[in-house]
Protein: PRD domain-containing protein
Organism: Metabacillus hrfriensis
Amino acid sequence: MKVYITARERDILKQLFEQPGFITVHTLANDVGVSSRTIHREMKKLEDTLKNYRIVIEKKAGQGVKLTGLKEDIDRLRNDLSSQSSYDYLQDERVYLLISELIQSKEQMKLYALASKLLVSAATISHDLDRVEKKIEPYELELVRKRGFGVQLTGEETAKRRLLEALLLETIDEQEFIQIIDKDPIREPESQTYLGFLTSCDLNKADDALKPILEMMPYEMADNAYFSLLIHLSVAVKRLMQQKPVSFVKSDVQNVLQSEEFQMAARIGKQLTNVFSLSLPEEEITQIAVHLRRARRQNEDFNFEQRNSLISLHVKQLIEYVADELDAPLRNNQSLYNGLISHLEPAYYRMKDGIYTHNPFAKETKENYPKLYEAVKKGLELVFPSLVFPDDETAFVVLHFGSSLEERRQVFSYKALIVCSSGIGSSKMLATRIHKEIPEITETALSSLIGLKKLNLENFDLIISTVSLPLDSSDYIQVGPLLADHEAEKIREQLKSTSKSKKMTRHPSYAEALGEVNLLEKIEVFEEAAKTVKELLRHFRVYHFSNHGNHRDVLFSAAEVLKEQGLIRDSETLTSELLKREELGGLGIPDSSIALYHCRDTCNIKPVFVLFNLEHPYTVPGMDNREIEMKTLALLLAPEDFSHTGLEVLSLISATLIETEDNLQLFQSGNGTKMTAVLNETFHKWLTQKFIK
């Protein structure tokens, strides 16, 4: 019988052959040199093959797994495996290896050469190449196939690298990354090669170069962002060694060259030069800087000076579309709105730069929650027509919506640690599902894989993870981020076996039991919100401005008006900060004549929102990279140390500007009385929803 068994599957079967009794998945993973999650995934694929031999993988809780079947059937499988080449691959693996081979080839390759390399027929390779064409389509690469010529992959080097990085992120799971960066002694650095391109030793050396710089960064990097950067660095080094540098027009990246991230990227470049003994040109440094800019960890604390009003409008449209499709009460969910802004703003620019994030739960999310997934997918296509959202990115957005649909606060008595490296959406989704489905769980704390080793695990009654952990399988429960029913039942069973002494480690206070309301804290937040609203309304003005001079002169003159009123300290500083913000991206609202210039700085004394109607309009960069003719200059300012609540109030203004077409027209009209009425209504509605429940 002809069977296709991968080298990894063969290693798993070898261990199972040698073990007559049960063996734990954790032990099996250590013996094979992969993660427990990988073992589960490979065994699932093996089950179909083993059916042909009437063999099953028997699983028993607490004991592990073993092969079960007649001795003659197991012997037959052994014989077939011994006659099979140790390099037989499944179709998906062949497709990935073909892509890697074609990217690395300096010239066209003949079908028979590829077939010989992968030990299959030329006809099989031809069929695999059809799938290669579908895989490369989003990357603007072309597969040239001509009779007598052979096969060649053509396109920009940056696109080839992005494709390689995406494939590597799909191939290497999170636990393997952790083993590599933690220098796990169980497996040697050279023990694994990925796609015939990178070795674990390559990744280990890139990690050595990156770690010292990571410790100097002013922000924390999420696990998946770190893994993505590590892959990017390793691919860049390998391609430079293959004499394949990147190139681009310097004017396209001028903002990056002047950024803080470029300085950090330059330091990383020096480290790579020392570790790999090669020199990185400025183009490579710039590519690293782009990754660093996109890797800034986004949390749900609103950072209003980074908000893009165009994306804000799209998020509102997306929420409305999904709410209509599912007939769900999502429109006034501020938490969902902020969460989507936090995720989609960096994702928007990341995808425009061709940087994609791998989501290990994309397939599971798509299969298990098809209705929600389809609604979000169609919504993204409608509101972001210029972007193609791959399944991985779509699934992340689905998690945010799923989290909001599941949210419900309750008070119970267990404390659980949730480990997840897929981002804010997945961890929040799992936490809210757990609170809803497992009423015994009171508290949930979140941790990334990298942060796990910093915690005292004894402080938790149970550990729930969406990824495989470097712990014994009996010490934690692995589930999906959307917590299927059978996974919830598994957690309930685990709680039953938890000792009563642990169960009562925490009791809710009387205030919590009566509704989880900390009255003093709520009063303080309300006072801060009311104070901000009061300041904004008190100083709101529409100035009819007889402007002269260039763009800087106009901004400086507007700043002078605010300085005279005691709202800012220094006109020159504010002008410079506004121009810096403009360098990060245009501020003109598309299809309008209004531009929203905003910043948070020490020169700002009070929160301010004012408008300047210009006598002489002129063009400025728009948020969609096209110019607009600015007739109205809007300034939205906050002190540098402004509170989270205050920034949340300011965020309402940028959202209100573009909330409806009527609002957009109104704020360009110069009618200060009607504008004040709209702001009053907006603030009143928000205060009522937030504090009167």
Summary: The CA atoms of residues 323 and 388 lie 22 Å apart. The chain is about 55% helix and 10% strand. The longest strand covers residues 608-621.
